[in-house]
């Protein structure tokens, strides 16, 4: 795992600039650094040594000397690919996956991407063609950012590296803020920093002669077959178990020890127990069982014979870490579990360099409780939709009583009511708190082309639950889940591997019928069956809790209330928001008139991010 950066075009200060860019992402690779400077290209690299500790230094060139690469990630099928390349007469100088990757690209060009099994963000300079190729992995596990600055095409693993390039003028992207308030992350290609973009998952970028084009090479497209009664559920379970076992084995390839993150849930429990890892890591809070899964995780660790490391996070250190968390995130993220993940990664990094983590299982196998909503709404299918829509609009005018939200959602199509696992501010609420007029599309307008493409590609055969999965795979997973996993782990020079987000596993999961995901009153039905032998029964049967963080409780306590109140009345807050509206949200939450914790947190983290990247740096 590493950090990459670079730029096109000649500069007299090339070496100084690339060193400054590399320094900004030193945390991604503290073991060593390397650079490559030619008249029209400069590449930079920070290394965290995982495979081929002695000889895997980058930038690295292809066997013919034409291609030069900087690569962040791991190629898990590199041994198979190496054997394939050797059959073509290509010889190797190292045992690294980087050398396999660059020579695979030398042999197959763009088609090499479809041969890879792994996580990656890389840049390849073609000396003969004087062209640059950037690529990001299938699911968005590893990040790649880029910008055009004063005639230079600049790229990096993190935005802060691009900020170190001379000539970039920092400006906030207002449209990103608008979408962020609803999604709790920005789904846009243009980041919160105006003019800096992220390469989207499954995409590659080709730059030549001052121009670039972006191509899609992979899409997370579900293709569920009709439920075949002849297909035995036991057969599906066995096939999935074999797929998962193979992925875990590939993800354990390393020249250093691999540990495991461990919550009290089935996903991490399976990985920690089945992988052969010796150490597992858990965090919790001293706020009662609701906000700590330490005891449940300990049972899994005991059954698997793991050395179990636990970190209890205090309220004060949680608050104190926020500026550093937002700095390492690069962009605001309104997901409080990112802070817990920051401490979890710090704890693990004190013992190992690599950990396995359970991201992706919920999106692939139907693990979120919200995916059961379409089933519950079927109970009132007998009521004409037009009537339900009228009832829903009337219910929206009622006080917040039990059953109100159900009626509202029953009167909406899935395309109207679902934008992903988070839906923080509705359009009217955004307009109330934002000082500047909303100029970008609504969340529904933003997602409309995606839903229309889904409908077209699948000829209307996808069920509502599968449409929800598709949204999460394309937006929530890379925008929230994987973004925080990468940034919080790399803040502590820790590599996180996600075996569920394996191309082979996805190919299997994409074909599963809904009945294999939501069944018998539970989520992830077939997945639970496939991994049940590795975890305690009570873990297998538990309802998904997510990563419970006690911000709802803390925001009602005087110390946090006063600190947030100060931020909500700051000049930075006044620049973007109607502060009286923010204070009302805070007051209503403290007085228990409403649970506004997620709304408050989303604004709060934006303000802390803004202070770190704009207000503080200008002082």
UniProtKB/TrEMBL annotation:
It is an enzyme of class 6 (ligase). InterPro entries: Asn_synth_AEB, Asn_synthase, ASN_synthetase/amidase, AsnB_N, GATase_2_dom, Ntn_hydrolases_N, Rossmann-like_a/b/a_fold. Its EC number is 6.3.5.4. The keyword Ribonucleoprotein does not apply. Keywords: Amino-acid biosynthesis, Asparagine biosynthesis, ATP-binding, Glutamine amidotransferase, Ligase, Nucleotide-binding. Gene3D superfamilies: Glutamine Phosphoribosylpyrophosphate, subunit 1, domain 1 (3.60.20.10), HUPs (3.40.50.620). Residues 2-210 form the Glutamine amidotransferase type-2 domain. Pathway: Amino-acid biosynthesis; L-asparagine biosynthesis; L-asparagine from L-aspartate (L-Gln route): step 1/1. Coiled coil: none annotated. It catalyses: L-aspartate + L-glutamine + ATP + H2O = L-asparagine + L-glutamate + AMP + diphosphate + H(+). GO terms for molecular function: asparagine synthase (glutamine-hydrolyzing) activity. It holds the Pfam family GATase_7. Belongs to the asparagine synthetase family. This is asparagine synthase (glutamine-hydrolyzing). It comes from Blautia intestinalis.
């Amino acid at each position: 795992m590493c950090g990459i950066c670079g730029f096109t075009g000649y500069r007299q200060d090339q070496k100084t600039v690339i060193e400054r860019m590399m320094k900004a992402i030193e945390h991604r690779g503290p073991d060593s650094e390397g650079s490559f400077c030619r008249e029209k290209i400069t590449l930079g690299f920070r290394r965290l040594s995982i495979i081929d500790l002695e000889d895997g230094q980058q930038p690295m060139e292809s066997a013919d000397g034409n291609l030069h690469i900087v690569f962040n990630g791991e190629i898990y099928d590199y041994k198979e690919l190496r054997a394939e390349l050797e059959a073509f007469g290509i010889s190797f100088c190292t045992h690294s996956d980087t050398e396999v990757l660059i020579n695979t690209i030398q042999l197959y060009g763009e088609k090499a991407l479809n041969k890879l099994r792994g996580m990656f963000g890389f840049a390849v300079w073609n000396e003969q063609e004087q062209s640059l190729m950037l690529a990001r992995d299938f699911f968005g596990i590893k990040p790649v950012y880029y910008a055009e600055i004063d005639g230079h095409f600049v790229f990096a693993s993190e935005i802060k590296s691009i900020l170190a390039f001379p000539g970039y003028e920092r400006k906030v992207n207002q449209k990103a803020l608008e979408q962020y308030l609803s999604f709790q992350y920005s789904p846009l290609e243009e980041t919160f920093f105006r003019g800096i973009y992220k390469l989207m998952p499954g995409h590659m970028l080709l730059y030549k002669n001052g121009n670039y084009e972006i191509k899609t090479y992979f899409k997370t497209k579900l293709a569920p077959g009709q439920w075949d009664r002849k297909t035995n559920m036991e057969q599906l379970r066995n096939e999935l178990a074999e797929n998962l076992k193979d992925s875990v084995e590939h993800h354990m390839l390393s020249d250093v020890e691999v540990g495991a993150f461990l919550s009290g849930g089935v996903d991490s429990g399976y990985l920690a127990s089945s992988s052969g890892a010796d150490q597992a890591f858990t965090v919790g809070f001293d706020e009662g069982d609701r906000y700590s899964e330490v005891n449940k995780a300990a049972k899994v660790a005991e059954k698997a014979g793991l050395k179990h490391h636990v970190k209890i996070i205090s309220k004060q250190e949680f608050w104190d870490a926020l500026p550093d968390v937002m700095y390492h995130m690069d962009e605001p993220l309104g997901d409080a579990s990112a802070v817990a993940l920051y401490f979890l990664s710090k704890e693990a990094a004190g013992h190992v360099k690599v950990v396995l983590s359970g991201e992706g299982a919920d999106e692939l196998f139907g693990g979120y409780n919200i995916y059961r909503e379409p089933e519950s709404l079927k109970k009132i299918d007998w009521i004409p939709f037009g009537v339900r829509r009228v009832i829903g609009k009337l219910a929206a005018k009622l006080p917040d009583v039990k059953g109100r939200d159900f009626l509202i959602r029953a009167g909406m199509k899935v395309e109207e009511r679902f934008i992903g696992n988070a839906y923080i501010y509705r359009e009217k609420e955004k307009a109330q708190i934002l000082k500047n007029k909303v100029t970008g599309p609504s969340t529904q307008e933003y997602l409309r082309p995606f839903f229309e493409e889904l409908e077209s590609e699948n000829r209307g055969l996808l069920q509502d639950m599968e449409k929800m999965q598709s949204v999460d795979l394309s937006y929530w997973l890379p925008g929230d889940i994987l973004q925080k996993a990468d940034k919080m782990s790399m803040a502590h020079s820790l590599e996180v591997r996600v075996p569920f987000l394996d191309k082979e596993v996805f190919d299997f999961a994409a074909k599963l019928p809904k009945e294999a995901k939501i069944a018998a009153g539970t989520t992830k039905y077939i997945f639970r069956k496939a991994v049940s032998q590795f975890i305690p029964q009570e873990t297998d049967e538990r309802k998904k809790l997510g990563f419970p963080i006690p911000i709802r409780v803390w925001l009602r306590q005087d110390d946090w209330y006063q600190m947030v109140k100060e931020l909500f009345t700051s000049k930075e807050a006044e620049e973007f928001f109607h502060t009286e509206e923010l204070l009302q949200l805070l007051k209503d939450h403290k007085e228990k008139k409403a649970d506004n914790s997620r709304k408050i947190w989303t604004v709060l983290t934006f303000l802390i991010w803004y202070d770190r990247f704009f207000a503080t740096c200008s002082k």
